[in-house]
Amino acid sequence: MSAEVTQGRFRWTLWMPLAGLVVLVFSWGTYPPPLVAAFIAVFLIGAVLAAVHHAEVVAHKVGEPFGSLVLAVAVTVIEVALIVTLMISGGDGTATLARDTVFAALMITINGIVGISLVVGAYKHHLAEFNAEGTGSALATVVALAGVALVLPAVTTSGAGLEYSSSQLAFAAVASLVLYGMFVFTQTVRHRDFFLPVESAAGRRAAERGPVDADGDGHADPPTTREALVSLALLVVSLVVVVGLAKTLSPTIEAGVDAAGFPRAVVGVVIALLVLLPESIAAVRAALTDRAQVSLNLAMGSAMASIGLTIPTIAVASIWLDGPLALGLEPTQIVLLAVSVVVAVLTVVPGRAKPLAGGVHLVLLASFIFLSIQP
């Protein structure tokens, strides 16, 4: 690829993450006034868009399902670092911070990302088609992780309130890692074909019209190794900027939430929405190109990584952290989780979905957000 083409491809996606990193350095630890916060938000949105671009470049190079795994794990690792940082800083609400953040991420992924992807994909291509076996195994792993990490602490008796005892927390951490590791092995090694995009009727018709690229494989040619490595580095920088600027803007968000009279848990929902924006945009773009499986890989992988990586990290960090660690869900949250699981199962089993299925998930996401504001 020529230097001119490379320069065109990386022009704004190269300088935006770096500019955002500079803004993050100068704004870290400050409480920006509204006008400055709006300026910072511009770079936050730019970093989100850059992250989506670079994630797609890396995903195209490594192929599915590795591409979805790269973005899901990258976002979650930085999200976990943010949670631990906030818990170390202390303050009100840190006892339930990990729980609220993980549950918000869970609702946003299995209802929000899945819902919007199915609506967009099914509306444009008549039906959104995917592999029910692969997506079903991912959903089963997410449900098991949520049950062990978030539901059981609400009903056990060894810990105080919604907390696990030390031995229970250690067991939950090990179980979460084992489940997550087993799924990654299944997705990337043992049964990788179950997580590849399904060739839909629309895709077959497009293929019959002939190849659209130079080598005739029906897909755009992958980037060079150098481009992929540059994009991988810029993806990490972009995600650091997204999470860092989201944390910088959190005092402004908290002030707005307090001024509106909303519960403090709404702050976690807003920040989770910001952090998951790269995956949401990438999932919608995949759905538009008739790759619903990629969208579901992103959604389920993000939900799985949010629990499977967060809980073990928090369990280790709790050795040095003071104060309680409440992981158990409240009754309203348990009901929302149960309904979401039932709907997700009914969505996944047929292996294809109409726009209605996505709309049902989006209503559940709206219910979660509304009940977070009006518990």
Automatic annotation (TrEMBL):
Its main location: membrane. Residues 37-188, 231-373 form the Sodium/calcium exchanger membrane region domain. It is a multi-pass membrane protein. The chain crosses the membrane at residues 12-29, 35-54, 66-90, 102-123, 135-155, 167-185, 228-246, 266-284, 296-320, 332-349, 356-373. Keywords: Membrane, Transmembrane, Transmembrane helix. It is found in: Membrane. It comes from the Bacteria. This is Calcium:proton antiporter. It comes from Nocardioides nanhaiensis.
